[in-house]
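[agent] plan:
  1. take the single chain provided in the ticket
  2. run structure prediction with default settings
  3. attach structure tokens to the ticket
  4. add a short note for the reviewer (M.T.)
[agent] executing step 1
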Amino acid sequence: MTKNLFIAFFLTSIISWSQEKEYSFSLEEAVTFALDSSYTALNSRRDVAKALKLKWETTAAGLPQINGNIQYNNNLKQPVSLIPGEFFGGEAGTFTPVVFGTKQTANAVATLEQLIFDGSYLVGLQAAKVFLDYTENANEKTMLEVRKGVIASYSSVLLAQELVTIYERNKINVEKNLYETKAVYENGLTEEENVEQLETTLLFVATNLSNAERTLSIARQMFNASLGIPVTAQVTLTDALNELVTGSIRLNMMNEELTLEENIDYKIANNFTEQRSLELKLERSKALPQLSAFVNYGTQANNDNFTFLDGDQRWFQYSVLGVSMNIPIFSSGLRSSRTQQARIALEQAETQMKEAIQNIRLQYDTAKSNYQYSIDKYENARKNLSLSERIENKNQIKFSEGLATSFELRQAQDQLYTAQQQYIQSMLDVINAKVELETVLNIPQLKN
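[agent] step 2 finished; step 3 output follows
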């Protein structure tokens, strides 16, 4: 009995482990989840964290630095110096070989260094802050793109689901017509061509249904990937396509004024110009003197044998205080050339800034136009679908009563199928056009 319980527990554990976590999202929940957990969002936040560390790295370069050094030397063959012989009572012109110092020495020293003034360091602090601002703005742009991608993939899944439902309904209707027409044909009351036309229509609908099912599977995987969850995970979408379209039609958005300072591309272009300006300041600062100071404290021991770890070994202390100033005097035009290059780069950045402003305004006008067009197209597609449904229904009745041919029915059905696809696509276009306009306006501002 104990063995059976163990097996049952083991099997239950395997089944529970093998089952993947199931998810359920509204569109807003999906966006929030992706901003926190998607692969792109995670790495973007890591870029900001790296920029913060870089800023501290730049700051720390001007703070006190303490270094220690321990050195041991063993003169395997000590150098010999030649001393004039007369120093030791010898003849003039002769030399006496002498060995100075001990065979082994040990030295330990600690040095404190402090930068007092460096123009490059001051500019570097400013540049680190600007780079952090740039990274944060890049992160904000990434978040906007993640949001746009999630909304597009969420809507694509709903669109694929809607197409599958439509094609399934169309298939059922065509199968019913084919069944009834075959019965009439077998009784000799209609032509074989009517049966063949319906079979052709059924094949067309079945092919579209299979393609829609495959598209739905791929759309689900793409949606999962955009959220940073396994592509095989089971996900339920709680919002309906009609609800998203209704919520996306906000004509008052057409009256939203463009504030350049809020546009993320403007912020990034401005960061780029600031960086180029600081690069020019950096090159100019290299003509200024650099002043630094240091103080060290050390101890040294000497002996012919290794007795440095003995308690009676004598150590001699020493300490040095120093100030150093490096003054650039002449560089053969090197600094001037670099300064001119930096000035030209700044002028290029300022020109790119002007271009970016014009492109942003163009994007805004284009996004507004596309948004209005998508709404108009959606309204026309909705009316066209209603009209195509009535036409197809009338031809269905006429065909069943023998007043219309299968060819005429096929034409009405093709018109209906096209209207259905256009209507579904127009719904997706409205959602995507609204998101595009929101992205240009930086609505909402996503900085997390």
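[agent] step 4 note for reviewer: Confidence is low (pLDDT under 50) at residues 13-18.
[agent] ticket updated
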